[in-house]
Design goal:
By secondary structure, the protein is α/β, with parallel strands linked by helices. It has twelve helices and twelve strands. Strand 6 and strand 7 form a beta hairpin. Bound molecules: 3-isopropylmalic acid and manganese (II) ion (MN).
Length: about 350
Amino acid sequence: MQATIAVLSGDGIGPEVTAQAVKVLAAVARARGHAFSFQELPIGGGAIDAGLPALPAATLEACRRADAVLLGAVGGTQWDGLPPPRRPEAGLLGLRRELRLFANLRPLRAYPELAGASPLRPDVLAGTDLLIVRELTGGLYFGEPRGRHVRDGRRAAVDTLPYTEDEVARIARVAFRAARERRRLVTSVDKANVLHSSQLWREVVVEVAREFPDVRLEHMLVDTAAMQLVRQPAAFDVVVTENMFGDILSDEAAGLVGSLGFLPSASLGESGPSLYEPVHGTAPDIAGHGIANPVGAILSAAMLLRFALGLPEEAGAVERAVAEVIASGARTADVAGGGAAVGTGEFGDRVAARVG
Ligand code: IPM
Ligand code: MN
């Protein structure tokens, strides 16, 4: 197979971890006779520092033409003073919006060997295997009106949480279809005891559920969900929720396994190229030291193989290789607990060697 992959490494640890994902994809291509070409493009803070917008037009165009987009992370403290539309994050949000990537899949599986890195008791964590389906192009992140103003001489600001029934229905269908491949339970998370948008959300999810009589549906308020995630994470299968709730719950879910470094994600639209990125951010405090955990980025590459290129065997080989490297005792600094740590590049080398 021939494929063009747009590589948007971004800021902070983005380039270090993305390099490992590319390394592993290149090893897969060599081993299985595929031809992947990688096209590096600026986004986020790096683009801003080069005098470009956070999402340069040429980057967007190249992404549209690519078979898939692999992204590292964007942002950093040096751009914190900028208003939201001019921050590095605007580059990523613009890309999600322009490519219409409404479905963000964030799977979380607890590796038994890493139980010691979790803040949870091993018996609470055992069996945790969940998928967060986060709505990605609506809700609080994009709703209008938004912005700052002055009212009665005082500073004020507004953000808006809108949803249409079609937006809710299409993300609900993604969740139900995913549940069919898993344990057939969908937990729809909302705040229907307070928010109009959540009442609509719940109504529409109930309607869509009728198309999937073989999948069980439960509703959970977002505050309860935040608590249940730490009390009984193994009870969840597929969680479907609004953009902002999904952002928050997915970091919490990552915390369950002890490090944000392990979570991959795929962002899918109805058609066109899809985007793959680790859930973690730029981690400016450790950037450039070669100690970041590349697992989230490498597992994102596995999702790319599965969803964008239709190569499930190759994807499985990458996921198995990661599990084997972890089982062999390799630990990056985030989960080494003060013990001997393997660097970012070395970890990537070990995974690449196993898929080759
Ligand atoms: C994520 C990130 C982004 C988000 C930021 C970088 C804009 O936190 O992908 O979870 O909030 O969606
Ligand atoms: Mn986030």
